Amino acid sequence: MTYLLIIGTRKGLFTARSEDRRSWEVLGPHRLDENDDAGMSPVYTVGIDPHTHRLLVGTESWHFGPSVWHSDDLGRTWTEPGTAPIAFPEDTDASLVRAWQFAFGPGPGTVYAGVEPHALFRSTDGGDHFTLVRSLWDHPHRAEWFPGAGGAAIHTVLPGVLGSGERFPEAITVAMSTGGVYQSSDDGESWAPTNRGISAGFLPDPEPEFGQCVHKVTVAPDGSFYAQNHHGVYRSASPATEGWRPIETGLPTDFGFAIVAHPHRAESAFNFPVVSQEVHLPPENRLRAYRTDDSGESWRAIDAGLPEEPYFGIVLRDAACTDGAEVPGFYFGTRNGDVYALTDDEERWHRVVAHLPDVLCVRAAEV
Q1: C-alpha span between 2 and 138 (Å, rounded)
Q2: What pTM does this model have?
Q3: Is CATH 2.40.40.10 the classification given to domain 3-366?
Q4: At a CB cut-off of 8 Å and minimum separation 6, what does 304 contact?
């Protein structure tokens, strides 16, 4: 079996392949745009279609602006559609800043893109063309969503899940900075905020209906959710009916950006703490991942194989993932440009590559 890792950085796209997830062949930076001789455009989101293994890359040209590229041969060649894949209708008086998230529907061809400014787009042709989900764009709350420090972005899109073990094609969960978590049970025709229990200490009302600065949400195999907030780590079996409960006890800090659920064990997840909103360094200046195996009741550091020296960077919201394999691999990249991999049968990190530009996003799959 071959494992593919795609890595988006501040200066270009890189790919890595491995047979054993211990040693890796790393290629890049890939030249996507013929006008970008060095392949050094920033890459803010990447995706691997689980049905077709098509790769999607959301990038920016300093000259031509944001776009979406795709590869149907696992990164050997790349194609950009002739017209802009993601574009706001003229009547919205908005323009695309960048794509922040790709997520794939239950069947081949359906792709969602969460973008900045706050909007959700949907494609039915594998990502060649996207259409604005007008119901979310026209939501009466949108005028009160405002940019977080990272921008006005829908950065989490989770098709097919609402919680309580419910998985069906008409369900969609999104999360954004700074608006919170919203869910649709009717294929995006209507949306409801589902933030009860998530605090927003930066607002006059710390328990608002919406307006939380959620940094990332991940879904467990039973359909429950883990969330990393702007201060606060949470879990919910069903956000709409049960709300969210805090689970940061045992973590060195409740601030961070990334969180990843185990693909087969609902009680397990990885978290990557950051000191605070003011100090973007790992706690005690040591790079560590933290794991729970009891749904957040306790956490333990997983740092075997990681550098013992200080100041090895933090993990951004989309720079951690799992490959979903039977014995799953977990991956993360740092703003120092290092990428690490761990398999569930050995709690030791192995370095995939070092000294890349700062890592913005990673995705992995068996291919």
Answers
A1: 43
A2: 0.96
A3: no
A4: 347, 348, 349
Residue 37, CA atoms < 13 Å, CB-side half-sphere: 0
- Each residue of 314-348: b (16+ CB within 10 Å) or e? bbbbbbbbbbbbeebbbbbbbbbbbbbbbbbeeee
Which residues, in sequence order, are CB contacts of 321 under 8 Å at separation 6+? Answer: 260, 330, 331, 332, 362, 363, 364
Cβ atoms within 10 A of the Cβ of 169, count?
A: 12
Domain ranges in the chain are 3-366
Amino acid at residue number 342: L
Q: Which residues contact 363 (CB under 8 A, 6 or more apart)?
A: 5, 6, 46, 47, 48, 321
The pairing of strands 320-322 and 269-274 is unpaired
Beta bridge partners of 322: 330
DSSP secondary structure string, 96-108? --EEEEEEE-SST
Pairing of strands 3-9, 12-18: antiparallel
Mean pLDDT over each residue of the chain, to the nearest integer: 94
> What's the rounded Cα separation, in Å, for the pair 199 and 177?
14
pLDDT, tens only, 110-162: 999 999 999 999 999 999 999 999 999 999 999 999 998 888 999 999 999 99
- Bridge partners, residue 119, by sequence: 115
Distance in angstroms between the alpha carbons of the first and the last residue of the chain = 7
Name the CA radius of gyration of the chain, rounded: 19
